[in-house]
Amino acid sequence: MSTENEGTEVPPAPSAPPVPADAPAAPASAPSAPAAPPAAEGGAPDPSAPTPPAGDTQQAPQPPQAPSAPQPQQAPSAPQPPQAPSAPQTTAAHPQGPAGPGGPAGPAGAAGPAPVGDWPPPAPPAVPAYASGGGAGSSWGASYQQPEPKPGGRRGGLIAAVVAAALIAGGVGGGVGYWAAERHDESGTGSTTVSASSPAGVKRDPGSVAAVAARALPSTVTIQAEGTNGEGGTGTGFVYDKQGHILTNNHVVADAVDGGKLTATFPDGKKYNAEVIGHAQGYDVAVVKLKNAPSNLKPLVLGDSDKVAVGDPTIAIGAPFGLSNTVTTGIVSAKNRPVASSDGSGTSKASYMSALQTDASINPGNSGGPLLDGAGDVIGINSAIQSSTSGGFGSGGQSGSIGLGFAIPINQAKMVAQQLIKTGRPVYPVIGASVSLQEGAGGAKITEQGAGGSAAVTPNGPAAKAGLKPGDTITRLDDQPIDSGPTLISEIWTHKPGDTVKLTYKRGGQEHTVNVTLGERKGDS
């Protein structure tokens, strides 16, 4: 493969009985409290009724008196009933008796309410003569007998009283709430929050991501590379040894190789000038050395990438899009993933790796940074990502992470770094044969002709000694399937010159297996 670097209704009130025309007119009924039975059926007066204006003092109702002769608007004389209750209060906790024809708040001299417990009520006032003459003539002149209170009368009054009490309590509560809110607003915050208790100290497991990051970050650097033409970029590296060597990708420092500028900045802000000691374009590995390196450098611990298993946790550290000291996490998604990568420039040559694949977020700027395992040991160098905006390798531009990141296994990177520190030049294992770089060919096919018109199979080279010829298709190296030329190169470069490998190839439809001792090539061609 190829890739790019980077409610219940209130019942109606019953009809009022006929009222004598000469009797005092009842005032308009005040609206009842919500959900309370009407006052006409024995309920308490509506607590929401307006208070009479100043000067119109409400008098307690007087017991009715029978008049000596019927006169309009004069209460007749009648036997004295028991003492009438005092004027009803809106906050009464006990129900009152049924209201008289004049209503509970009638004018002075109007009949007052009779106690509920006395039945029948006092005799009504004398009925004046109607058009038919006489006080007891036709039905219209018949005297009116007040009906006996219904059994539910007291209940209705109690409900009304409870509602009134609830309204008053709600008013008190609302007032307190308003007062508290007003006092709170005066504090200037305008918000109420809940804060967690602050423990004396937060203890984290030594194997937690936070603990691993805390140990590794001081040993990572953000690299700025600038070429003689002013062009350059940002990448990442990490402390390889106490002598000031920093391990990173070749494509991170490539612009500064020939006379450019190179700096490395630590998380504490300290910046150092640096120089390229050696770089391997094919492996995409480079070593730089700090000038005037501090004496307290702490190299990161190098793990064993051969022992990594799919599903192991990973932690990536780098400067994605220039955001230094960024930590992301994931897992090892795959091993031995053949990858041909490049920085996408027109002059860049491909690099090949049998990579560790991770879903830890890796973006442009992460290149050269460490890929750590759960213990904080380095298992790879973050190097490339698969882009969703292109078919893969070499499309140019910058793309973000889609969860497909690739790292050079640290075992391979360590071997290359040691070569670069020692000689400044990389050494590549080879089989001495040119293969097609076309993918999806079902294997690595040896071409008919080599680069620049040279022989496809180097005379007396490893492949020639093993009997390989142009047109042969290599399908397996040891136990690893080979599906293309880049895959074969990636697998060969995980070995060292002098190693013996077993190649399986097809010729004329027949499968053959041979052992090949790897040769070497020094430097980038």
UniProtKB/TrEMBL annotation:
Query: Compositional bias of type Low complexity: which residue ranges?
Result: 22-46, 86-97, 107-117, 188-201
List residues of the PDZ domain: 429-509
Where do transmembrane segments lie in this chain?
A: 158-181
UniProt feature, compositional bias: Pro residues: 11-21, 61-70, 118-127
Q: Which UniProt keywords apply?
A: Hydrolase, Membrane, Protease, Transmembrane, Transmembrane helix
Per its UniProt record, what InterPro entries does this chain match? Chloro_Bact_Ser_Proteases (IPR051201), PDZ (IPR001478), PDZ_sf (IPR036034), Peptidase_S1_PA (IPR009003), Peptidase_S1_PA_chymotrypsin (IPR043504), Peptidase_S1C (IPR001940)
- Chain spans, region Disordered: 1-152, 185-205
| The keyword Nucleotide-binding is assigned to this record | no
| Xref: Gene3D superfamilies | 2.30.42.10, Trypsin-like serine proteases
- Decide whether keyword Flavoprotein is in the record: no
Family, according to the entry, reads as follows:
Belongs to the peptidase S1C family.
Please give the name of this protein.
Trypsin-like peptidase domain-containing protein
Q: Which organism is it from?
A: Streptomyces beihaiensis
